[in-house]
Structure formats: C-alpha cells, structure tokens
Specification:
By secondary structure, the chain is α/β, with parallel strands linked by helices. Helices cover 29% and strands 23% of the residues. The strands form two sheets. Strands 1, 10, 11, 12, 13, 14, 15, 16 and 17 form a nine-stranded mixed sheet that branches. β16 and β17 form a beta hairpin. α1 packs across α2, α4 crosses α5 and α6 crosses α8. The protein binds pyridoxal-5'-phosphate.
Length: 392
C-alpha cells in the first residue's frame, strides 16, 4: 500500500477509526448525552468531519483549544465551537468576538474576572454578545489542599468561587454564562495499566477511584450554586476518552468530550473497559543498514508532550522485532533500530510502521494524512499544518 508513496508518511486506518467512533458512542449509553470532539487530539479537518458524521445525532460540536484554531475550523465549515482553554490576549478575544458577530456559535472559557473583562470588551467592540464557559477544577486536594492530585487548571473549585465569577460575568452586558466545563483529567487521561511504571498502577487506581465521586459532587455543588442565582447552563461538558461511560452516567453532564480515543495512540492502550484499536500510524523508510542486525530509518523523533519519560516515545508497530537503540532513541533525522525479528530485516526503502504516544501531535509533523481503507489509500487530506495552521 505504501510502496508508491513518499516516506515518512502518516497513515490513518479509516475502518479502525470508524470502529473506535462506534465504541465511544456506545460508551455514552442510552441517555441524551452527546460527544463533543476534542479537536486538539485530531488536528485534521477531514477526520473531524468524518468523526462527527459517524457520531450522527450523538455528536455535537468541537472542543477547540485556541481562538485562532476555532477561526480555521469555522472557515472549514464547522460550527458549535467550545474553546476549552482560556484566552488572555486582546487579539484572541477579538477573533472570538468576530466569529460570534459573523453568526458562529462559539464559547470562550474563563476562570477569572480578567478574562471575562477582556472578552466583554472585545464583544462590545464587535457589537455582539459572547457566550462564556466556566472552567471548574476537579483535582483532589486532600489535607486541606497541601497535596494536589490531578492537573492544575482552574481556581474555581467551590460553589462560592463559581458564584463570584458568575457575578463578574453578570456585570458585563456583552457576555453571558451558558456553559460549564468540568474535566476530570485524573480519571479520563490516566491509564489503568501503564507498562512503563507498573508499580504506580495501584496508586493511580486509588486516585481514579477517589476522583470519580469527587467530580460528580463538585459538578453538583457548582451547578446548584449557579441555579441558585438564576443561571442554568445549557452545556455541561465533562470527561475525556478514558471516562466516557462514567462521565456520561452523571445526569448533570450534557456532553462528554473525547478526541484521543478515535485515533488511539499508544498512551490510550491500557484503559480497563475501553477496547480501542490503533488507527493512526507513521511509516518511516529504511535508508541504511550499519550492521546486519540493525536498520536505520529516516525521521522518527516525534516525541509527545507531557512529563518527559519513556512513555512519550513512539513505539514500533510493525514489523515486529525492531527496537530503538538505547543511546540514540528516536532521532531528529534518523532512527537506528535493532532487528531481532523473524527472517531478514526490512530492506532499503521498506516502511517501518510506528505509533505516536499522543493523538493530535503527529499532525504537527505532517502536512497530509494518507487515509487508508483495507489495503488501499482512499484519500490524502491536509492536517492543520497542511492548511497553514499552527496554534501551539
Ligand atoms: C478540557 C478537556 N476535555 C477533554 C479532554 C480529553 O481529550 P482526549 O479524549 O483527547 O483525551 C482534554 C484533554 O486534554 C481536555 O483538556
């Protein structure tokens, strides 16, 4: 399938992608809860479109990560864009305001009054009203907050702090609070089995078990506080790939965000009860052989973000029997691999297929993805990078 293609190349298995969409929709259960697609974990308009289409009535909108990105997606024909990360500069606030003034439904996420003020000014300047989404922190902070277990996101972690910010929103005529975002990262983004640090699995398990009821209780506390001052958010967003069914079972949640699970990079192996298939790969060409039991590929240094560790490195998917060389790893320009497989090592020009640790970041390395069905490339379509979009 790749013999006529220039390598390195990124390849998506559309059949596996579609099966992953079906599995995540099934994980939502029977209720009215919808899936919002986390665009950062895809970064490819053609795939976002296919995923939303496949979700049908169980899909609603995109969870974006920047105003500039939302503008690109609006140009590509998407709507219902919830920007899930705060905006702290006037240029970005103006982009949001102009999208809304142009007729798009876009939310800006806030967790402090300065952000509210900034967006309100841009909205007033554009003569429009921008909808805001309140970001709630769901980390577990035992011992009176001395210990912090979870990600560091918002300072809003009580009904009182939510009311305080909601009142700051109410003072501004050009903004309106209509959504709440409550992402339980300690449940949704943490593997049950991490092959790189098995000894920590029980501790991660304990934090996950404790974080689930905490998320439900904090969402309820904050929503009841907002209802008490007459604010009934239309959208209550929660979760991520690793928590679709548990988050969807909270009756206060209207939608669950998911992105990584559609493509299933290798950090999404090892979730109990979530059987997903790898759907995105990159293929590196063998360009030389320094020794009979080694092959060297062109490219490969596509290391994922997050706390630096072995789990952020790519993994060879096939042929089986190739492992990175300890002292060189996946290199900037070339990646030597030791061959311990059956028969002859792959020859010059042959592809070595690898998986990235994360779902969206590969799109920052390639301008197009090859979209495969069975053993045929069905299409080649641009990533954000291919469309000139680079948003950090
Ligand atoms: C706000 C928010 N929701 C959901 C997610 C989950 O996305 P994914 O399904 O790609 O893990 C993330 C990921 O970081 C996020 O920041």
């Amino acid at each position: 399938m790749l013999s006529e293609r220039a390598l390195p190349a990124a390849v998506v298995d559309l059949d596996a992608l579609e099966r992953n969409v079906d599995r995540l929709v099934e994980a939502l259960g029977e209720g009215p809860t919808t899936l919002r697609i986390a665009s950062k974990s895809v970064r490819h308009p053609g795939l976002l479109r296919r995923i939303l289409d496949r979700c049908g009535s169980r899909g609603r909108g995109l969870l974006c990560y920047s105003a500039e990105e939302a503008a690109l997606l609006a140009r590509e024909g998407f709507d219902d864009l919830l920007i899930a990360y705060p905006i702290a500069g006037a240029p970005a606030a103006r982009i949001v305001a102009s999208l809304v003034a142009g007729g798009h439904r876009v939310w800006a996420t806030v967790d402090c009054s300065e952000q509210v003020q900034l967006i309100a000014e841009a909205a007033a300047e554009a003569g429009t009203i921008v909808e805001l989404c309140l970001d709630i922190d769901l980390s577990w902070r035992p011992l009176g907050g001395v210990v912090h277990l979870g990600v560091r996101r918002s300072p809003i972690r009580s009904g009182a702090s939510a009311i305080h910010l909601a009142e700051a929103v109410a003072e501004q005529p050009a903004v309106r609070l209509t959504a709440v975002l409550a992402y339980e990262a300690a449940v949704a983004g943490v593997q049950d089995r991490n092959p790189g640090s098995r000894l920590l699995d029980p501790i991660r398990g304990l934090i996950k078990r404790r974080s689930r009821p905490l998320a439900v209780a904090r969402r309820r506390e904050i929503l009841e506080s907002l209802w008490g001052i007459g604010i009934v958010p239309e959208v209550v967003n929660g979760g991520g790939t690793g928590s679709v069914s548990s988050t969807a079972s909270d009756p206060l949640v209207t939608e669950v965000a998911a992105g990584s699970g559609f493509l299933c990079p290798h950090l999404f192996d090892g979730y109990r009860g979530l059987e997903l298939e790898p759907a995105v790969f990159f293929a590196l060409p063998v360009v030389r052989r320094s020794d009979p039991d080694h092959v060297t590929c062109f490219g490969g240094g596509y290391v994922a973000s997050g706390a630096a560790g072995r789990d952020r490195l790519p993994r060879v998917h096939c042929p089986r029997g190739l492992t990175p060389v300890e002292l060189e790893g996946f290199g900037e320009v070339q990646t030597p691999l030791r061959w311990r497989g059956q028969g002859a090592a792959p020859g010059l020009g042959e592809p070595v297929v690898c998986r990235h640790a994360k779902a969206g970041e590969l799109a920052e390395r390639f301008s197009t993805y090859l979209l495969a069905r069975g053993d045929r490339i069905e299409a080649e379509e641009p990533t954000y990078r291919g469309l000139g979009g680079s948003f950090g």
